[in-house]
Design brief:
The protein has 356 residues and is of the alpha/beta class. The protein folds into two domains: 5-90, 2-Layer Sandwich (GMP Synthetase, Chain A, domain 3), CATH 3.30.300; 98-344, Rossmann fold. It contains twelve helices and 15 strands. It has helices at 5-13, 54-66, 83-90, 118-131, 148-151, 179-182, 192-204, 224-232, 248-261, 292-299, 312-320, 330-355, and strands at 30-36, 39-46, 74-80, 103-110, 136-140, 159-161, 164-166, 168-170, 173-177, 211-217, 237-242, 266-271, 276-277, 284-285, 304-307. It has an eight-stranded mixed beta sheet, with helices on both faces. Strands 1-2-3 form a three-stranded mixed beta sheet, with helices on one face. Helix 4 packs across helix 12. The radius of gyration is 23 Å and the shape is elongated. Bound molecules: adenosine-5'-triphosphate and magnesium ion. Adenosine-5'-triphosphate binds at residues 111, 114-120, 142, 145, 147, 220, 272-273, 308, 310-311, 314-315, 318.
Length: 356
């Protein structure tokens, strides 16, 4: 027996959006109904990308449709509403970068390649700034390896309301991750130009509140992903993380070129895994050679903001979800120095802008 469109709509009328407490049909969230004999595929448009309730909505829809007598296979596809559709629903669409309004300085952390300690530097810089009394947030914009929630020991999912997402908070640091967008294997359309659109929408709709510093962990490399993020958010300055090896030079060159080309200001270079302090002595070992960071900084006429040693406590802090910079000690010293340099460079840039 073939299923009818009316049966499907009747069933969907019984499914409410958990936040708005109205049926998906009344809210205009049912985008498409395809019927092939007993099999049904429905497309539901969520109010926003990364909607924290998407898994619940999806399972509610599945359950309601499965109750139709004689139904075969049920597929639920999730997409997001257009701005116009959202505006119709909420009366007024939050403006594009609504959530950024109270954010004073956005600092992006970038690297020419992966695995150089970009997330480690980002999360410890955020922790050092928070420790100094600043209002700090961190945005994990590395959608292919969202590590920041792990490094802060955050397991909860963010909540959303009326088209805005609220960041989670730990150690006095607000956090949002693009991992929220991908969800638990939900087939939210996650390819090509739609990724850019989803990222842009997502970035503007996080309710950060008032922040002195928002640290952004960019995706690694010099491709589309870091650029989309870096050109969407108004960035005060980029920090480029590298390791001291000679081969790192060409990665940094490409990375610096990318930001300069798009007129995104660079604050300076951080050399990570710079050296190793031999335990119990003052001896220092240059594992990857020395002077790489200085050479790079000189070559690009950029400040060398910090040299971060290799320290097991730094890795441990990341693995355990408690950044080492929350505690004072040998391992966190370099991050406090980095925070001081960043504050100084930002103040320099801000006063230059004011004098213009
Ligand atoms: N200075 C350091 N001392 C000891 N371990 C470090 C240091 N910096 C980073 N690590 C460790 O190296 C690994 C890679 O660091 P991290 O994840 O921060 O790099 P990433 O550049 O963000 O990598 P990805 O490109 O995968 O996102 C992690 O296990 C981290 O704990
Ligand atoms: Mg990372």
């Amino acid at each position: 027996m073939a299923i009818t469109r009316e049966q499907v709509i009747e069933a969907l009328k019984k499914v409410n959006d958990p936040e708005l407490n109205k049926s998906l049909v009344d809210l205009g969230m049912v985008k498409d109904i395809e019927i092939a004999g007993p099999h049904v595929r429905v497309t539901i448009a969520l109010t926003m990308a990364g909607c924290p309730l998407k898994d619940k909505i999806k399972s509610d829809v599945k359950e309601a449709l499965s109750a139709i007598p004689g139904i075969g296979e049920v597929r639920v596809v999730l997409t997001t509403m257009t701005s116009a559709e959202r505006a119709k629903l909420f009366g007024q669409e939050p403006s594009e970068m609504e959530g950024m309004k109270g954010v004073k300085n956005v600092i992006a952390v970038a690297s020419g390649k992966g695995g150089v300690g970009k997330s480690t530097v980002a999360v410890n810089l955020a922790a050092a700034l928070a420790k100094k009394g600043y209002k700090v947030g961190i945005l994990d914009a590395d959608m292919h390896g969202p590590d920041i929630p792990i490094m802060l020991g955050i397991k909860d999912r963010p909540v959303g309301s009326r088209g805005m997402l609220f960041p989670l908070e730990k150690y006095g640091i607000k956090m949002m991750s693009t991992g929220t967008l991908a969800g638990d294997g939900t087939p939210i359309v996650w390819r090509g130009p739609l990724v850019n659109k989803a990222i842009k929408e997502f970035l503007g709709h996080v309710a950060w509140g008032d922040l002195d510093y928002l640290i952004v962990d960019l995706p690694p490399g010099t491709g589309d992903a870091p650029l989309t993020v870096a050109t969407t958010i108004p960035i005060r300055g980029v920090i480029i993380v590298t390791t001291p090896q000679k081969v790192a030079l060409s990665d940094v060159r490409r990375n610096v070129g990318l930001f300069l080309e798009h007129k995104i200001p660079i604050l300076g270079i951080v050399e990570n895994m710079s050296y190793l302090k031999v335990p119990g002595s003052d001896e220092v070992m240059d594992i990857f050679g020395s002077g790489g960071g200085e050479k790079i900084a000189k070559a690009f006429k950029l400040p060398l903001l910090a040299k971060i040693p290799i320290d097991p406590q730094i890795r441990q802090g990341g693995d355990e979800g408690r950044p080492v910079a929350l505690e004072e000690g040998e391992a966190s010293k370099a991050f406090y120095e980095l925070a001081d340099k960043v504050i100084a460079e930002v103040e320099k840039k801000n006063s230059q802008n004011n004098n213009k």
